[in-house]
Amino acid sequence: MHSHNVVHLDIKPENLFLLSPSTDQLKVIDFGYARRYSAARTLHVKYGTPEFTAPEVAAEDPVTPAADLWSVGITTYILLSGVSPMHAATPRETLLAVKAADWNFDEKAFANISPEAKGFISKLLVKDPRKRMTATDALRHPFINLANHRGLGDKINLDNLRAYLFRRKIERGTNQVKTIVKPVLLSSLLHRVGLTRRQRRGQRACGQRGRSRLGRRRWLRRQR
Predict the structure, then answer these.
(1) Active site residues
(2) What is the pLDDT of residues 106-147, one digit of tens each?
(3) Regarding the domain with residue range 2-190, which homologous superfamily does it belong to in the CATH classification?
(4) What is the rounded CA–CA span in Å between residue 34 and residue 145?
(5) Phi and psi, residue 61, nearest 5°
(6) 169 pLDDT band (50/70/90 cuts)?
(7) CA distance 166 to 84
(8) Which of 37, 107, 153, 177 is deepest in the core (most CB within 10 A)?
(9) Does residue 86 carry a pLDDT above 70?
(10) Which UniProt keywords are listed (predicted)?
């Protein structure tokens, strides 16, 4: 993909499919946010999934193929542990954590994960995109070579991963009918601040007063 000067910009577990049940070959799908990349011109992007987007995207800095490698790091972290290193209570808090590259290994979830796997993730979740592994470097990493020696390490506990996937399903909505969702600017999520309780009460009161006035006007029209 990168060799064809295409950046995906939305790599996450939902966008990875096995070609068949009997193979380990993955297929990347959903190129809705993908862009053509050229070193000769600056690329900025405004959309993405907060939990998987790279720090430079959250900071509205120029984007390179390294943004996809950050997403690969996040995806690897989640698949191995069932824990998301960037997920927070709101999209805004998630993006702030991403922008600061504020993450660490969950001690309990990574208790039985190999040093090679941790090293792989650590070289991808680097704030400076210039210091991140490239796709070529990642494919040569010792962690990838472990795929040729299945069954030698501890088994991964999938309970956390199942819980994570359930949460993602709830967040996306359980409706089976496919709908088209208008993308939301990441910058709008980053700068969005929730209403205070007093502001919410004020909005409700204004709405009630508006409905009362509308009802009175309708009553007066009926009396004429």
Answers:
(1) 10
(2) 999 999 899 999 999 999 999 999 999 999 999 999 998 886
(3) Transferase(Phosphotransferase) domain 1 (1.10.510.10)
(4) 29
(5) -90, 165
(6) confident
(7) 13
(8) 37
(9) yes
(10) ATP-binding, Kinase, Nucleotide-binding, Serine/threonine-protein kinase, Transferase
